[in-house]
Description:
Structural class: mainly alpha
Number of helices: 15
Helix content: over 70%
Oligomer: single chain
Largest sheet: none
Amino acid sequence: MSWVICKRELNAYFATPVAYVFIFMFLALAGVFTFYLGQFYQRGQADLVAFFNFHPWLYLFFMPAVAMGLWSQERQLGTIEMLLTLPVSITQAVLGKFLAAWLFAGIALLLTFPIWLTVNYLGDPDNGVIIASYLGSWLMAGAFLAVGSCMSVLSRNQIVAFILAVVVCFVLMVSGLSIVLDALRGWAPAAVVDVVAGLSFLTRFEALSRGVIDVRDVGYFVLLMGVFLAATVQLLNIKKSA
């Protein structure tokens, strides 16, 4: 049943021009960040480090924008009650909507392949590292979307849901930065500092983008998706019984 919902939602994305505008903007900004801000040609190295370095910051705004309407729109239009009365469990509905958004993000990511072709044309990159980076990027996008899905349940206003998702994702991104950890070390126990450092999207993605597919890093993104999707299910259950 989740797959049926997924297909319906994915088709809905491409039924309006918004999806195409989103993909165009994502690809355009990815190119600008890679070739201009990332100084791709000036670096003189055949790799996609500059390309992937900007992915967390692109996702910080693009993924919440994709996820903000997952449940906010249903609440705003009053269709959430009808959806929850259908012969489908809340868990299946949450998974179906999330998978559609994640596949949509994957399609946008796959359409960046000309950049990969360009670097192979210009040099001899380590394609194994690039594949690992793409995998890490897609997993990170899923984590962003899971957070966005959860925030989307909290408000019927899509803009509010978007802002909440950006704030939560930003906190998870910067938690591993030295400025944050140094501030914590002044008063928090070392164990707490280590936990906060381990929550960082940037730290986990950086490891994957080096080509090192560590089970702990993959597991982190999968676990984060599971936690926020489970929270989404619980929030919907509360709203259903209220």
